[in-house]
Amino acid sequence: MEKTFSEEIEGAQMGEALAAVSGASPYHPTDLSDKIFDINVLVCNYTQHPTKRKETRSDMVHSLINMLTKANRDLSFYIEDLKQAKCIEPFCLSSKQDVDNDHPLFWTFIDKLCEEIRDEEAYQILKRQIAQFNSLLAEAENAKVHCNPIVFKEYFMRKKKEKLDENMVRQFHKKLYEYRPITEEKLREMQWEAVIKALNTGIFDFARKPSIQAVEEVSSELMTKDMPCDFELTDQFKRRYAKFRMFAEKRGTMLVFNYVNYGQYIVNNRKKIDEKQFQAIFNLDVELNLIHKEMMKGENNYYAIVKELTDLYQMKCIKLVRTDQKYDDDWFESLLNRFFDSDEGRAFVKLWKYERKRFKLKAVFIGCLKAAGVIEDSNANLGRNIMKADKNTNKKFGTYMSEWADYPFSTWIIDDVKG
User: N or C, fewer C-beta in 10 Å, the chain?
Assistant: First the structure.
């Protein structure tokens, strides 16, 4: 006996539920995004090229119901993953309730299609699947608003790996060869060239408008001799640069992205960003990182100090004794940025120039973090664990940690953390 369409749908849903219970991997976020894109394309194509043939329309409706069924299943898994900070993915469609819905016509088209098949068997099934689809999209949007911000950074890193342009990397090294001998001045010039090229593609045009004060504050950064001689400083570029600085921090002369903010910008505006701009977003970060690696060469360099302290803070034995989730790697980056912009931080850099003092300075810095309540462990135990992880560390690390009060910069670190 031939199954009805309702029975086929119920059978498919039962099979998917059993697969999920058995532990089979139910979906991938990117595949879900593709499914939702295909739903939008199918509905829009049908609306633009409608048919009066009942059989053709029936085939399209059955395809749509199957696609919605699978998308709804995946959305349920996705929402749970998003709540647990496992992933985030931008979709081309929004719920009816979303005030920023860029595709209101999709829902108009869906309603029109439902009216056309009101007297057919598939009508109630389609209405039910559409209602669930809208409800799940709204739930996903709410989960995104309340999610752990780390998912935005992880999204950026995942897409950056996928979009890596090997040819661009080769071109960078070729340019580096042509710029020899490499100097700090030439690296700063290369940094500005990369930023100007990317901003001129409009990659940040969808960010919120900067205030007049924000534009004025960053304009002074653009008045530098490191700019290309043919660069024209327009009002449009000032606004674009002010938007760029919403997502990038200055560390000395380095422009470094805040990946949480950068990733969130991309997720929120993926529907508006074209493919050329999408590639330029990741090319800019890759090129800046390549330039910064060159800048960090030389152990007396400010950037090298930041790297050594960051590597130390990211050790597993220190991560395990951090007292609060807020003291994550991004927080530490911000702390260092503020510290080295201060007089105390500049004094620290001067002390670092003496190689014999570096080991003790690192221990004292960790001692300051312990005194401020960022980490909690005995000096002796933490010193032993660091020594196990780093062959260049010796047993005096824990002893030196306790001498933090002998250094004037310790007061700045503790006050900043607590305040």
Answer: N
Q: What are phi and psi of 298, to 5 degrees?
A: 110, 115
Residue ranges of the alpha helices (H) in 182-231?
Answer: 184-199, 212-219
Burial pattern 212-223, b for ≥16 Cβ within 10 A else e, equals: eebbeebeeeee
Residue 247, C-beta contacts closer than 8 angstroms, at least 6 positions apart: 204, 207, 257, 258, 261, 262, 265
The distance between the two most distant Cα atoms of the chain, rounded to a whole number of Å, is 88
From the CB of residue 73, how many other CB atoms can be counted at a distance below 10 Å?
Answer: 22
Which helix (H) or strand (E) covers residue 49, if one does?
none
Residues 108/109/112/113 CA torsion (nearest 10 deg)? -150
Beta bridge partners of 331: none
Structural element, H or E, at residue 13: helix 5-21
Distance of alpha carbon 413 from alpha carbon 419, whole angstroms: 10
List CB contacts of 120: < 8 A, sequence separation 6 or more: 58, 61
DSSP label of 291: H
Q: Confirm if 380 and 398 have CB atoms less than 8 A apart.
A: yes
Side chain identity, residue 229: C
Through-space distance between the first and last CA atoms of the chain, rounded to whole angstroms: 74
Q: Are residues 249 and 337 in contact, defined by beta-carbon separation less than 8 angstroms?
A: yes
385 CB-side CA count, 13 A: 15
CA dist 195 and 199 (Å) reads: 6
Mean pLDDT for all residues in the chain:
87
| Prediction pTM value | 0.72
In contact, 384 and 398? CB cutoff 8 Å: yes
Q: Is the pLDDT reported for residue 185 higher than 90?
A: no
**Which candidate, 62, 59, 63, 54, places its Cα nearest to that of 119?**
54
For residue 117 the two structure tokens come to 């098949």
Residue 50 CA to residue 115 CA, distance in Å, equals: 13
Rounded CA gap, 167 and 61, in Å? 45
